[in-house]
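Give me structure tokens for this 430-residue protein.
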Amino acid sequence: MTVSTASAAAGAPTATTDSVPAAVEPMSLKIPLTGVVVLLLQGLMALGAHGTTTFRFAVASDFLRLGDATLSARLVIIVAAGAVAAATALALVRARGRRRVPTWATAVIGVGFVIAFLAWVGAGRSGVIPLVTILSSALGLSVPLVYGSLAGIIGERSGTINIAIEGQLLGGAFLGAVVASASSNPWMGLVAAPVAGVLVALLLALFGLRYRVNQIVVGVVLNVLVSGLTGFLFSTFLSSSPSLNRALRLPTLAVPVLSRIPVIGPVLFRQTILVYLMYAVVAVLSYMLFRSRWGLRLRACGEHPKAADTVGIKVMRTRVANLALAGALAGLGGAFFTVGSGLSFDNDMTAGNGYIALAAMILGAWRPLGSLGAALLFGFATSVAQTLPVIGSSVSPDIISMIPYIVTILAVAGFVGRVRAPAAEGVPYP
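Here you go.
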């Protein structure tokens, strides 16, 4: 971030400069190698697939119900492998030519693996693969990850490392459950949840920004603090007063007409307000972060705070304000675990989702849309892991429980290209 760019953030005029030719992309074989690994796995799946797999594309409420499709599992895997092979070849050619691999090619490799895997696990089974249920569950499970990753983006783009997302999610889940139970209204819990996230964020700002304590250490300590505090309150007050920890759920809001479209209707338009708010936040933040003066000032503080300060931007105030905003989003995501899912609060019920949200943020290259895709990937893996026992899969339950985390590790290791964190993240100023 140069002084001239920071001047633009402050509203000052800037001088035009000659255009600089774009740098040549370095050769990266990560995506082609990932495609080769997927092809090898698909080959093993094809050898072990016997019989047919039935896919279900509809639910009872669709006004146009699509019938179940019973297909040869081996044929499905071979077709998926063909698509992956083509995408891998394209990725290799682009990489060798020092050109960027198209996003759709990466998506084809991922989707091809998923289709082959579902065909393999369902081969010869009496149960069906409920695609609509899996996709709808995947979207729901990704909600706290999306809010958490957006919180991480806002914090780190402004220069603050926010490891405390786990604590903000857990605090939002706790306060949302308590307030909803006390008021007998889940909507009040939804309003209260962001408050918990803001309080945790202000503690991070106090110690990490004001007193210049290492922000990673402060974030981890805050996670432990919130876990211990909510655990203490749960065992002492909530256990003895069940009326303060009731299972209340936000209503499902079906969008007229759209919610009845086959496949995509039940998935996208038959959700709670938390999901619809997620759509809006991702869209607004994607625009504001890169197309508004607020976003330019925020990014200036995360890239070159001294330049930003030189042109009159209040770096400390900008970082604290945006960290509070990030905490509110993370707290809102925490509401998913209680009022968003119709569950009462339980100890450490966020189960490490805050750390997975950080991985989604990195996988998404600190961009809202990229982080949305990464969160959906993890949510889909979790949904598949929960569905496999239902269809009678012979895959070990221990392996099934590992699937979401294996997918996250492979995605970060294999699909992340050249990404760069904000230059001044974690660096105190002044």
